[in-house]
Amino acid sequence: MYLGNPSVLLLLIVSFVTPGKLCMLRPVINLLEEEYFSVCCPTSGQEKEYTVNWYRENEGKWMSIQEDGRIDLNGTYLQFWPAVLNDTGKYSCCLSNETHISCFNRSLKVLQRNKESCFNPNHIETGIPRKTGQSHTLNCNHIHHPANVVSITWYKNCSRILDKTEEELVIFELKPGDVGKYTCVKSLTHAGKSYNITRTTELILQDPQENTGLSLIGPEHTVLKTAIGKSEILNCTAFLPNNSFESHWELYWLYNGTFVDKCQDTNEGDSPCEMDRKKEEEKYVLIQLWLKSVKEENIHSSYDCILSGHKTARHSFILQKETNPDLSVHVFTTGIIMAILFSFITVFMAILCAVFRVDLVLLYRDITAKDDTLGDGKLYDAFVSYLKDSTPIYGEERKFALQVLPKILEEHFGYKLCIFERDVSPGGAVVDDVQSFIDRSRRLIIILSKNYISDQVMFELETGLHKALVERKIKVILVEYMPISDFEFLPKSLELLSSHQVVKWKEEKSLPLNSRFWKKLRYAMPAKPPLKNSPALFQHPRKEGELLVHSVSYPSCPC
Predict the structure, then answer these.
(1) CA dihedral 547, 551, 553, 554 (to 10 degrees)
(2) What kind of architecture, by CATH, is found in domain 215-321?
(3) For this structure, is 168 an active site residue?
(4) Do the two domains 121-203 and 370-524 of this chain adopt the same fold?
């Protein structure tokens, strides 16, 4: 058999027969690290009359080998339990008696394990090629060992063969599918520890064309799908056996019955031409026909590869236009994944924008310092309408309208509000004043609660809704200060307001400046840059981050 590198035959130099054993000398012995290994010293069966000594070369000097916990000297055998990388080197065994001494040298090369495979490529034995249909037997490593065999496991191309646990693996009828690398792992126990002996043999089959004459490889007719303007290369391979009796042969291309020239820089246009020939293992010759750019006249034309010798062989190639080229599996899969990914991202971004639309708009206004109040001729950013006469002077709606709302919108966000009770001097015509101030305002803020039933505020509400929905001169912001159970008294036109124009007050949850209430209110108000030096927020005595409202004085706005 071939040992070591597949291209090198490791010859046996000396062999001596000992009782039941064959001791072989090889120039270089390859072994695997962390495995048991035994190397023998050849004798003629008279080893009892000789003294056996083992030596190892160290820096040009031969040093005697002594036993330790890992290396044993067992008669004519030098045993490693196990071998390690540092054991690589030159070894010598000497047989001596009173009149004669004989020494035998060999080199050991310990190979590192391949962690990604069951074998090392340099530890593969390549057997003599076998013929299809023959039987063949593969053997485990018969290296000498004094230990008990625990198990034997066979692998083919590193996949375990479940029903094979014997020293020999017999294949009764070789088939092309039997080609591969067979690994036998023999497990031993010694001194309470487990060790392996591994042998990998590559099984190859003899080329069925080994004894045939000149021939072309492949089908006689080949149809190639292509496209106009595409570059194509046609391959033709000829088999030329070494033992062929034919000394003269020719291999060439014909295009529509005409010889094809070799490719040169001076080739005119895009005519087909023969590229350089390539030889493989001195048995095969490959010639290629190059079409630089496929044209209409090349479609359905005949391209023939001719091998001429004792017999003539022909392979024909026909080009056909590919009408609807299919996408490759890789491109199709990648496209599907990208489409799903982009769809997911689009849906996610849409949901994100819907949920955080208010925050995104406010962020955009702050970054760009957008101002919608310039040049519109309005005096106020909002006219505040709230309950005035139907509750005590210190009612909740009144406190919210006169203290909380202006405290935040005016002092922090820079808006200018017009509150009738606070800013309008008494004595004027209420109807005229309300209409005048609403006309001068950009928004109408209606603070709606269960007590919102007075005549004056109902007039403000109806006036504002008429200007918003009919005249379209102002936008309405409806603040639901308290839950309302009866809407019968309210104008039906309130139902026409969009959800973005309705803001609900939720008592203490709405007090912090970054609450959802103030964000939605700012979103409904005209865009306006916030004050650069806005006053700091007071801290709520019960919950950190909430606003503590104090009474403040308000300057009267010009009317």
Answers:
(1) 50
(2) Sandwich (2.60)
(3) no
(4) no
